[in-house]
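Query protein
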Amino acid sequence: MKTSPFFILLFLLIFTTQINAQSSTVKASYTVQLREEEGDLNNDRIEDKIILSMDTVDQRRPIQLQIFLSQPDGKLKRVVSTTQIIEAMYPNGGKNKTSEYQIPTFIIEEGILNMISEIKGGMASYSFKYQKGNFELIHISKGTWDGKNTTTESEYNLRTGLKIDVEKNLASEKILNKREKKMQQKPLPKIQDLKHSDFQNY
């Protein structure tokens, strides 16, 4: 007996709905703290705090970044909470395949929040400044190696739009090529809007 395509579609729709309903009942549980950093982020001379935590319920093990700013009463207020900016430990949900890169390190220096991350062939630092009520991406520094004899150092000032790439000989540090490019200026990206995949565009 042949099965009608209509009933196949109906079955798939019901099955998908049930799966989504089940997954929606599982609450996030960011119980494992991975990183904590303190420092003054809003120039009030009082320590603020950032915390990285991992969800132990979701099989992908997503990572949450929270930023807390100090208040006049001495308490901390959470102003940012995002799970998009850092790739989950198991992006595809499989426990045997971890993320390609290590979990980023966060450092607070002179009111700037720096996220230091592994990238293909090297490392990158993404600098965020608290202004206009948001943490905005203002500067990117990258250092990469081609696997042979050449390194590339890149500096991108998002406020001015100036991007500079300098290629050097790995052994002698001799500059082989230097390029300056004026990028089209856009509104500065906010930390809560950025996804980890967005950094590939810089």
